[in-house]
Each structure stands twice: as structure tokens, then as C-alpha cells.
Write a structure and sequence with these properties.
Distance between the termini: 27 Å
Largest sheet: 5 strands, antiparallel
Order of helices and strands: EEEEE
Number of domains: 1
Helix content: under 10%
């Protein structure tokens, strides 16, 4: 899922989000984990895998 217009907050840090993939376990209808691709403050692409409640997604503000 492409979410490049969002930032993600994870462990009290804000990252530029590239994409994420929900991970479903035990036949549940809601995802229990997320695999989130981010750009860190150095511009390095990284993957964060953690439970869904650990992430908060916020829309980037467009500057005119």
C-alpha cells in the first residue's frame, strides 16, 4: 500500500513513510502486525516490523 503522503510516528519519532504491508495472524480479520518501510533522518530506507498499535500515521501538510 503506497502512503507516501503520510508520516509515521513510531516510538516517539517521526519518519517519512514509503509503504506498509499489514500482516494477518491466526485468521483474524484485522491485521496484528505491520511491516512499514520508512526513510530515517539520514535518508536511509529501513523496514520496521511491529504490532499495529505501535504506529500512528499522520498526513503530511502541503505547503503552498
Amino acid at each position: 500500500m503506497n502512503i507516501q503522503n503520510y508520516k509515521v510516528i513510531y516510538r516517539e519519532r517521526v519518519y517519512n513513510c514509503i509503504s506498509f504491508t499489514p500482516v494477518f495472524k491466526d485468521g483474524k480479520e484485522q491485521p496484528t502486525f505491520l511491516e512499514v518501510w520508512i526513510l530515517d533522518e539520514d535518508g536511509t530506507m529501513k523496514v520496521i516490523n511491529d504490532e499495529t498499535w505501535c504506529f500512528q500515521f499522520v498526513s503530511k501538510v502541503n505547503k503552498i
